[in-house]
Amino acid sequence: MIKHFLAYGNSDQVSFRSDLVRECFDVMTVPGTIAAYYQDATAAFVLSSEIPYLIDPRTPLFQGRIESPKPSHVSLAEWHGEHVLRLVTAAVDGHDSYLSPSDFDDPGVLRDMVDRIVHEQTAYADRAPGVENKIDRYRRLLAEARGSSHVESAFRPAAPIGVVAPYFAVTSTLDPWWSVNRRVWDYCVESHANDLAVMPVVTVGDVSVLDQALAEVPADLGLDVLFWVTGFDERRAVGQDLDALWSTVRSASNRGVRLANMYGGYFSILLARAGLAAFGNGLTYSESRAWPALAATGAAPARYYVPALHLFLTPALAQALLDLAPTLGCECRVCRDESGRSRSVVALTYHELKEHFAAARQWERVFVDTSSVAEMELQLVDAARIVEGVRDRLPPRSNVSTLHLDTWARVLGRCA
Fold first, then answer.
1. How does DSSP assign 311-348, residue by residue?
2. With 90 as the cut, is the pLDDT of residue 146 above it?
3. Residues 240/218, Cβ–Cβ less than 8 Å
4. Torsion angles phi and psi, residue 92, rounded to 5
5. Most buried among 131, 240, 356, 407, using CB within 10 Å?
């Protein structure tokens, strides 16, 4: 089954203590901004959770013009070395500040950035002795969430399952930033490849250049590669781009590369049939992450994920739709009461909406893993047909798109 990377946010601690949520993903990804800014609290929570984890350096936050950095950005800049920190600090003081590819013409600047990023990740578990009280508290809260007052005495904080190299977003392999990425990888091979696995991140602006970019990743870095097509939205993508993504993933898989899409949704789960090894998302946020607007992201509003449609709706609209088309309802234990009857969507708490989303994403993974291509196509086509049958009875100006379902079904038919 394709692996699921679930992003951790400050408002997600209760969710990550839920057994339902913990059963639905494989790896916790920790944004570097949170890890660097809330250093003690985040380290204590991550280490006490005993969940495999990765730390995302989120280097593109500092790429290009640096405007109005937040305190968390300053903390993360410290992880990127003296040069990046100096530029971010200058921006805080109101000076025009700009990080360009030419800044890394100085080998010392590049090496300092890579060494600091690698060190912060490899030494993450070493923070445990300094936050023992917080770790003990989080372990007690986890035991209580599981209905137990007993906390196991044996505890060994674990290092990340891999180290994510710093990375920059590019438009193509002709972008000057691409040369910086290549030199980051070369230095990782030169200085770190013998003692740890460093995961490269390929971040491109268009699906059409992803295959070429992946082909240029040094084989000496290993077989695990993360990728991110900036601003790519699986539900809005045209069939041609989805075909190209399918072909790229299949080609990489045939070379033995274990690809992970950092920001993926249901189509990424379908891509398991092409060889995609893993995908990532957060609890209730959208599957697209645009660049350079990273600094503007935040907590998502309350939304309900309709697994049959593979998209979010407002709770009110989801309730209206399910009242008209109950066959689209979810069978997870959040959405059903003890007698098996459907619960009201609008009555679900924000935490329950997160739990439901995790359960729905798990259902999608299992469905793709155990179904035939014909069954997956039929599920998409049937869901779209059901919505069309009730669309004229939905509230005025309701937006329940099903175009992505038809597009995905056609791509499946062509590619799988």
1. EEE-HHHHHHHHHH-GGG---STTTB-TTSPBPPGGG-
2. no
3. no
4. -60, -35
5. 356
Compute the distance between CA of residue 362 and CA of residue 330 in angstroms, rounded to an integer.
Answer: 12
pLDDT tens for residues 149-160?
777 777 889 999
Preceding peptide of 292 cis, ω within 30°:
yes
341-356 pLDDT tens trace = 999 999 999 999 999 9
Q: Which of 244, 279, 296 is the last residue of a domain?
A: 296
Residue 176 is encoded by which pair of tokens?
């000057």
Question: Two tokens at 353?
Answer: 């909406």
Phi-psi category of residue 65: left, alpha or beta, with phi > 0 → left and psi -120 to 50 → alpha: beta
Q: What residue has token string 């392999």?
A: 173
Cα 93 from Cα 19, distance rounded (Å): 45
Query: How far apart are the C-alpha atoms of 405 and 384, rounded to whole Å?
Result: 6
Phi, psi of 55 (to 5 degrees): -115, 125
Whether 175 contacts 216, CB under 8 Å: no
Phi, psi of 37 (to 5 degrees): -85, -50
Token couple for 122? 């490899």
**Domain end residue (candidates: 296, 321, 336):** 296
Q: Is 328:386 a contact under the CB 8 Å cutoff? A: yes
DSSP state letters, 354-407: HHHHHHHHHHHHHHHHHS-HHHHHHHHHHHHHHHHHHGGGSPTT-----HHHHH
**Over the Cα atoms of the chain, what is R_g?**
22
Q: Looking at this protein, which amino acid is placed at residue 248?
A: T
The pLDDT of residue 295 is 59
DSSP reduced 3-state for 3: strand
Are the beta carbons of 258 and 223 closer than 8 angstroms? yes
